[in-house]
Amino acid sequence: MATITELKAVLKDTLEKRGTLGQIKARIRAEVFNALDDQSEARPPLSHENLLINELIREYLVFNKYKYAASVLTAESGQPEVPLDRDFLVHELNVVEDPNSRSVPLLYGIVAQLLHADKEEKTHQMFPRSSSLQFSRRNFDKPAN
C-alpha cells in the first residue's frame, strides 16, 4: 500500500504534468484576493497612460489564458470590467497593424516594433543613446476619461 506522502507526491506530479496545479494555485490566490479586497476603500483615479497600459497587459493575460491574473489586475487596478476596444487602443497608441498582427495582443506588436527599431538603430547610430524609450510625464497624474 502506498503511504499518504507517496499519494500526495503522485497527485502533485500528475497535476503538474496536466498543467492544472498552476491554475489551481492561481485560482486560490484570486479567490483569497477577492475575499480580502476592501471594496469600501476608494481607489485613486486611473491616469490615461495607466488605463492604456493596464489594458495592454489585460489583453496579453487573457490571450495567454492567465484569466485569474487578469481578474486580479482588473479588480486591483480599478480597470473597467469591459475591455477597451482594440481599435481605440490602436488609435490612441498610434500603432500600425497588419492582418497578421490582429491575431495577437498589441503588446506583442509593440515589443516587436521596438526590438526591430533597436536593431536598426544600432547598425546606423555611432553614438550611444541615453534611453531606448522616451516617456512623457504630462498625463501621469491626470485621471482617464
TrEMBL record:
<comment type="function">
    <text>Involved in the biogenesis of cilia. Required for the recruitment of PLK1 to centrosomes and S phase progression.</text>
</comment>
<feature type="region of interest" description="Disordered">
    <location>
        <begin position="122"/>
        <end position="145"/>
    </location>
</feature>
<dbReference type="GO" id="GO:0034453">
    <property type="term" value="P:microtubule anchoring"/>
</dbReference>
<comment type="similarity">
    <text>Belongs to the CEP43 family.</text>
</comment>
<dbReference type="GO" id="GO:0060271">
    <property type="term" value="P:cilium assembly"/>
</dbReference>
<dbReference type="GO" id="GO:0036064">
    <property type="term" value="C:ciliary basal body"/>
</dbReference>
<dbReference type="GO" id="GO:0034451">
    <property type="term" value="C:centriolar satellite"/>
</dbReference>
<dbReference type="InterPro" id="IPR018993">
    <property type="entry name" value="FOP_dimerisation-dom_N"/>
</dbReference>
<keyword id="KW-0970">Cilium biogenesis/degradation</keyword>
<dbReference type="InterPro" id="IPR006594">
    <property type="entry name" value="LisH"/>
</dbReference>
<dbReference type="GO" id="GO:0031514">
    <property type="term" value="C:motile cilium"/>
</dbReference>
<protein>
    <recommendedName>
        <fullName>Centrosomal protein 20</fullName>
    </recommendedName>
</protein>
<keyword id="KW-0206">Cytoskeleton</keyword>
<feature type="domain" description="FGFR1 oncogene partner (FOP) N-terminal dimerisation">
    <location>
        <begin position="43"/>
        <end position="113"/>
    </location>
</feature>
<feature type="compositionally biased region" description="Polar residues">
    <location>
        <begin position="128"/>
        <end position="137"/>
    </location>
</feature>
<dbReference type="Pfam" id="PF09398">
    <property type="entry name" value="FOP_dimer"/>
</dbReference>
<keyword id="KW-0966">Cell projection</keyword>
<keyword id="KW-0963">Cytoplasm</keyword>
